[in-house]
Specification:
Strand content: under 5%
Mean pLDDT: 83
Radius of gyration: 19 Å
Order of helices and strands: HHHHEEHH
Low-confidence stretches: none
Shape: elongated
Number of domains: 1
Helix content: over 70%
Length: 153
């Protein structure tokens, strides 16, 4: 799954660079542009960000509760630190998943478009998808007691 995510991440990043550069050239050289390009690039930033966050979860390089994690380590509970961080991360990701599903459903009902006729819910669908993968990966690392993928140098 990670290679598929990496492939999509690379593709979306390339599309962002091409259309961002093209838009700058069109505006500065030809005094024109593509009205929809800015919104598409913004939408792809969301997709790149959440896909990257999902990939970071494989190696447990996601955002964690650093202050509490350090307090636990300082008080001699370092053995439980990773378990606590994983449980807290899982709870938070599930809560965010639930909220993002609700928001995506509401977006699908309002029938607004983001750019070129693409519905806003299609732009936002990456959020619940990424949070679902993140939740599954955090749960798996909690059960297996190790990251799903080790750091590569």
């Amino acid at each position: 799954m990670a290679s598929g995510e990496s492939w999509f991440l690379s593709l979306w990043l390339m599309i962002m660079l091409v259309f961002g550069t093209l838009q700058v050239i069109l505006r500065n050289v030809f005094d024109s542009g593509m009205d929809w390009s800015d919104m598409m690039v913004r939408s792809l930033v969301l997709w790149v960000g959440f896909t990257g966050a999902s990939l970071a979860t494989r190696r447990e390089r996601h955002i964690n509760i650093e202050v509490i994690s350090r307090l636990i380590t300082a008080h001699g509970f370092s053995r439980f630190r990773l378990i606590y961080v994983r449980i807290a991360s899982l709870i938070i990701s599930i809560m965010l998943l639930k909220s993002s599903i609700t928001y995506t459903i509401l977006e699908s009902e309002n029938q607004m478009t983001a750019f070129l006729g693409v519905p806003t819910w299609v732009v936002f669908i990456i959020v619940p998808i990424a949070l679902l993968f993140m939740s599954i990966r955090i749960l798996a690392s909690l059960i297996l007691d190790r990251p799903l993928e080790e750091e590569k140098l």
